[in-house]
Amino acid sequence: MGDSVLLVEEDAGVVTLTLNRPEFMNSLNFPLLHALRDQIESFRFRADVRVVIITGSGEKAFCAGADLKERATLAPEKVKEYIFTIRNLFTSIEQLNKAVIVAVNGIALGGGTELALAGDIRIASNSAIMGLTETRLAIIPGAGGTQRLPRLVGKGKAKELIFTGGRVNAREALDIGLVNKICEPQDLIDECKKMAAMICATGPIAIEQAKYAINHGFETDINTGLAIESNAYWVCIPTEDRLEGLAAFKEKRKPVFKGK
Questions:
Q1: Which CATH code is given to the segment(s) 6-200?
Q2: How confident is the model at residue 37 (pLDDT cuts 50, 70, 90)?
Q3: Active site residue 134
Q4: Which residue out of 56, 106, 111, 245 is catalytically annotated?
């Protein structure tokens, strides 16, 4: 699998997906988009997968966005197909019923930052550089950036970054809430796996329902959001895992959740 554009590693409920085009700064061409799409969709109904980590190969870049060399060869119709494919892929990552941690290991521009925005939790290396730079090419973010960035950092800051095509370093990304945490480059994957281990210790159905409630409730008024939360909570009540959690608490032991 060394020549694959996407490397896949599985360990104890955690799958690490590594964008593997380091010679092209892990930019997103059609083969990589299709490989990532197929993997993400394969996890949706796998109970043994609890957390997905997405990162890039090499020490320089997480993902430099679209493969502009490929883009230059595409007819307008193929460009539309590319945008449709990448937008739907990032939406499927955002809506995946598993926790998704994005390990930003270096440069993440354009679609690279949009990919990070589609994750649930972003942990960045101190060497990370992020930004939605599309306006410098006379286009706009087309894979959700105009929608997800303002929801994360606020409308004003998002407009500043998108209108100027500006870039932020890891510390600035942390300060504006673009990433959850930063760390030394050599510690990045370990930090992500530590976070993943904490998530794996929780109830699978609870994580799925909490993610659903947050994602869908955030788009509504507070009363509708509370109703969504209530319905998501009801899903958890009849589960074996909820009873196991109560029993483990009473018996002062670690619970063994089965996702049932």
A1: 3.90.226.10
A2: very high
A3: yes
A4: 111
